[in-house]
Amino acid sequence: MTKSSIAVGADWGYAPAPESADHFRLRDHYGLFIGGKFVPAASGKRFKTINPANEKAIAEVADGGEKDVDKAVKAARTAYDKVWRKLSGRERGKYLYRIARIIQERARELAVVESMDGGKPIRESRDVDIPLAAAHFFYHAGWADKLAYAFPGKAVHPVGVAGQIIPWNFPLLMVAWKVAPALACGNTVVLKPAETTPLTALLFAEICQEAGLPEGVFNLVTGAGATGAALVNHPGLNKVAFTGSTEVGKAIQKSLAGRGTKLTLELGGKAAHIIFEDATIDQAVEGIINGIYFNQGHVCCAGSRLLVQESVEEEVVAKLKARMETLIVGDPLDKNTDIGAINSKAQCDRIRDYLKIGEEEGAELFQTRCSVPEKGYWIRPSFFTKVAQSHRIVQEEIFGPVLAIQTFRTLNEALEKANNTPYGLSGGVWTDKGAKIFKVTRGIRAGVIWANTFNKFDPTSPFGGYKESGYGREGGRHGLRPYVELS
Ligand code: NDP
Question: Atom 6, ligand 1: which residue's CA is nearest?
Answer without folding.
Answer: 167
